Amino acid sequence: MAEAVAPPGRRVLAWAQEYGVYAAVGVLLLFNVLFTPHFLDVANFRTQLVQVAPIVIVSLGMALVIGTQGIDLSVGSVMSLAAALVALYLGYGAWPALLVALAGGAVAGTAGGALVAYVGVQPIVATLALLVGVRGLANVLVPQLVEFRNPDLIALGSASLSGVPVIVVIAAVLTLLMAFLVRRTTFGRQVVAIGGNRAASELSGLPVRRVLLLVYVISGVLAALAGVLATARLQASDPTSLGLFIELSAITAVVVGGTPLSGGRIRVLSTVMGALLMQLLSATLIKHNLPQSWTQIVQAVIILAAVYATRERGTR
Amino acid sequence: MSQSAAPVLEARQISKRFPGVVALDGVSLALLPGEVHALVGENGAGKSTLIKVFTGVHRPDGGELIYNGSPTAFGTPLDAQRAGISTIYQEVNLVPMMSVARNLMLGREPRGRLGVIDTARMYGEAERILAGYGVVTDVRRPLRTLGMGVQQMVALARAVAIDARVVIMDEPTSSLEPREVETLFSVIRKLKDDGIAVVYVSHRLDELYEVCDRVTVLRDGRVAHTGPLAELERLKLIALMLGRDLDEVRTGGLTRFSRDRRQARDRDGAQPAVRAEGLTRRQVLRGVDVSVWPGEVVGLGGLLGAGRSETAKGIVGALPLDAGRVVVAGRPLRTGSTTAAIRAGVSLLPEDRKAEGIIPALSVRENIALAALPSLSRAGVVSDAKIDKIVDVFMRRLRIKAASPDQPVQELSGGNQQKVLLARWLAIRPKILLLDEPTRGIDVGAKAEVQALVDELAEEGLGVLLISSDLEELVEGADRILVLREGEVVGELSGDDVTEDKIMASIAERGAESDG
Ligand SMILES: Nc1ncnc2c1ncn2[C@@H]1O[C@H](COP(=O)(O)OP(=O)(O)OP(=O)(O)O)[C@@H](O)[C@H]1O
Ligand SMILES: [Mg+2]
């Protein structure tokens, strides 16, 4: 214990904290290029990205919420609500149905946000209530799987823009928007400040409650959009199982991306990388015929590693 | 103290680097049993860092520590504490959500049968211990509901209760009243008699001369001087700290509040900048009336728990009120909303900079710009150019010492964090500024600058409400003083009546009556 200095170790940790996700994604890609047959096929790439896009969209909202020291467990249920609403209103056309679904997400977000910001309920409790309640509502609205043939909606799920699936384009654009929101706008700075020290933010005159409410609304709308996109791809509305456990994937993406659960810091691009890493990981293990349980164990190891790296930075 | 005794704790050529700064550069210091050793220096000189090296918070990059004659390296602060080094850190670090009693007794709670904590006994014992320090409070309350001063006393009581050979105090008096300071000093003298070595860090020079035997002056991470304190002239000490010539200090002077005290002005027709009427909150405030006219500095006097900080918080809407209203320039303010208060031009520099002031992980830059963001952005998008400009102005003006504006504010020294907070408030150009302990932890040079700045702003028409546990600062800075006691205004002093004696008398007089 008497050794004088150990900065190399610390520097590695600091580096891992900043760029660990990028490095891990890089290593995994390299591994696949070398050892996985057909990995470089365009079709395979597309599948991976299309699968991960809804998770990415949900994770963006989750990162914002976690940045305020909160958590949003209701995202999966909001996705199912969006699926139900889309199915119900598809008669008016794809776009009106989409808008209604997003509005549904906004209402759910407002409910959660109001509970957290104005009533003072703990985020985990408030959104847990919504997790249960909103999926119940979605199941009441649309009790069984409903298939549909609306061409616009189907196109949303399967069309491509110069070779890139629309879903992927949307996720990419939203990522850039979110990065801009967090880095360049007053709102983004306020979110981070509130997560860093709420009492100080209040005394500095930040509209703390309004910002918190808005954060949950954004998360709700993003989840609803993810729900619509996933539904469009399925070509069927399935409120019973759509989005189940996606909150866990989203939280994992955020944590693996290096955003601390203690709030005060939001890493948007790294969150996306976190989602990609988990996706790539399970794809790799499946391609190499490892059983599902192995995937879960490896994922657990990665989560622990990420949490270890983002642990409050030691001062020594 | 016996000069011949071997040092109990000794630092030899200690170095400590942080990214971008050398915090300690070959610092040596020997601490003798039974001495009170003053450790002084400008903000960011390395005092707290040296202490954290002593207590195992930081690991030095070079040099060695000798404790009880053998080389030591404490792995954690707990190791240091177990070995007999007890510390009161600059930023009170107790557990805010736990009760006062729990904080005080943490780790040595009285236990009953089956090892369960005997809460009744714990509360009784905690009450008794605190009463010994002149603190009477409900020990069941969470610590964070108490003022900084009381929290500091709890930290002190806790540190001393641990059987220690070395007690280190990093700015223990920054939130204490003269009366509590006296209590602290008697505790220190007793420690000294017991042969315990005390390290004492403070920016209040009077205190140093009162209790310390020897002094070590740090400047930019190096030892600038070590020796007996009594024979060191005060100005010489300041010169050593600032690294200036003695003559320069003598003539250039340390401008403090320099303005002549304004006599109660002709106020016919004019409106107060802010008028608070009947501020009431159960058990804390009992109908406090305060008015501040533009260009006036109003001081709030009183003991700990008299309701001074609460009055300030009530005015900006940070403390829910049961009754009362606040009128700013003739317009009533929406109650309970700091946002509304700040928009109307009223802002508060809070006393607890760690819990209510800094956003620790954000950079110096972001912390300064925080409150002014709306005016530093267009259509919700922040303008980096505008922020850089303001940040640059204030970092220079207040001489904020940081590796760069992008350094996280938690890495700054305590005094520099305080300057960052001042900058945050000055950046929004308020009309009324409520300052709760504005110079807490700020070094002599910067203190004078801050006071001069307050003066200058008052000349320009800013109304200031000044709360300070430093009576001298209050007397020199304020045009008028309201004395609070138990949540009530019990006296008002203005003009030539503003003196330390009269304030003390005003507090005491009423005290005698109600203690009656
Ligand atoms: N954890 C840290 N990371 C980076 N720099 C640090 C850290 N802690 C301290 N420093 C730097 O080391 C220098 C010395 O800081 P220190 O806190 O020891 O000053 P100080 O003498 O206690 O000042 P003050 O009177 O303001 O409390 C400062 O420049 C500070 O910014
Ligand atoms: Mg310090």
From TrEMBL, chain A:
InterPro entries: ABC_transp_permease. Pfam families: BPD_transp_2. It comes from the Bacteria. Keywords: Cell membrane, Membrane, Transmembrane, Transmembrane helix. PANTHER family: ABC TRANSPORTER PERMEASE PROTEIN YPHD-RELATED-RELATED, GALACTOFURANOSE TRANSPORTER PERMEASE PROTEIN YTFT. It is a multi-pass membrane protein. The chain crosses the membrane at residues 20-40, 52-71, 77-103, 115-134, 154-182, 211-230, 242-261. One of its GO terms (cellular component) is plasma membrane. This is ABC transporter permease. GO terms for molecular function: transmembrane transporter activity.
TrEMBL record, chain B:
InterPro entries: AAA+_ATPase, ABC_carbohydrate_import_ATPase, ABC_transporter-like_ATP-bd, ABC_transporter-like_CS, P-loop_NTPase. PROSITE patterns: ABC_TRANSPORTER_1 (PS00211), ABC_TRANSPORTER_2 (PS50893). One of its GO terms (molecular function) is ATP hydrolysis activity. Gene3D superfamilies: P-loop containing nucleotide triphosphate hydrolases. Keywords: ATP-binding, Cell membrane, Membrane, Nucleotide-binding, Repeat, Translocase, Transport. Its main location: membrane. Residues 9-245, 249-511 form the ABC transporter domain. One of its GO terms (cellular component) is plasma membrane. It is found in: Cell membrane. It is a peripheral membrane protein. Pfam families: ABC_tran (PF00005). This is Sugar ABC transporter ATP-binding protein. It comes from Microbispora hainanensis.
